Amino acid sequence: MSLHCIMARGAARMAVRTPLQPSFRSLWMEETGSELVEFTITLSLVLMTIFSILAGSVALYAQHYVTNAAREATRYAIVRGSYWSGTTCSTTTAGDCMATSTNVSNFVLSTVPPLISTSQLSVSTSWPGTTATGAACDTINGTNSITCTVSVTVSYNYNFLLPFLPDKTITLASTSSGTIAE
């Protein structure tokens, strides 16, 4: 036999693959384990969607609380004007006292529900000395006199716990104003 025939037989043997020696292309086209990969990708997307919905729901919950807290704090302040009795409040319960910024803040902090962090909550109360129409009010007894307005702003820095968000903190705020009645 010639050297050329021996080399041709060797090359033919190399070209024939046995089941124990799969080619790269056959490995690439193999579908064994593809269900596991598909399940992993699908499960990741489903879990990401569920946790996004939960985080969004908690953010809506926090916004609802902030809005309601501003309204309730305004109500707390409008029924405790300068004619109430001239004394400052020592508790957050209704009583014979005049509301101050500290009293309004303490009232809001006493109503904080679960999932809301008091360290991220801020309350700002102002008595601008005007009526609801913008005219100057009677401030003989101070800017918290009857017919004067009070404005309460409650803000909350909500932190998303989702790792794929670029900005994980949003500020939720609500302002409420009312005319002092007492």
- How much of the residues is beta strand, in percent? 15-25%
Any idea what the shape is? rod-shaped
Spatial extent as radius of gyration: 35 Å
SS class: alpha+beta
In the sheet with the most strands, the strands line up as 1-2-3
Considering DSSP H and I runs of 4 or more, what fraction of the residues is helical? Answer: 40-55%
Q: Quote the average pLDDT.
A: 80
Number of domains: 1
The arrangement of helices and strands along the chain is HHHHEEE
How many helices? Answer: 4
What characterizes the major β-sheet?
3 strands, antiparallel
| pLDDT < 50 stretches | none
Using DSSP, what is the number of strands?
3
End-to-end Cα distance, whole Å, is 119 Å
Protein topology:
Elements: H1 3-15, H2 24-29, H3 34-78, H4 101-109, E1 121-126, E2 149-159, E3 169-179
Antiparallel strand pairs: 1-2, 2-3
Helix pairs in contact: 3-4
Please characterize this protein's 3D structure.
A three-stranded antiparallel β-sheet has the order 1-2-3, covered by helices on one side. It starts with a helix and ends with a strand. The protein is built from four helices and three strands, in the order ααααβββ. It has helices at residues 3-15, 24-29, 34-78, 101-109, and strands at 121-126, 149-159, 169-179. The chain has one domain. The mean pLDDT is 80. The protein is an alpha+beta fold and 182 residues long.
Tag the structure with descriptive keywords:
3 strands, rod-shaped, alpha+beta, three-stranded antiparallel beta sheet, 182 residues
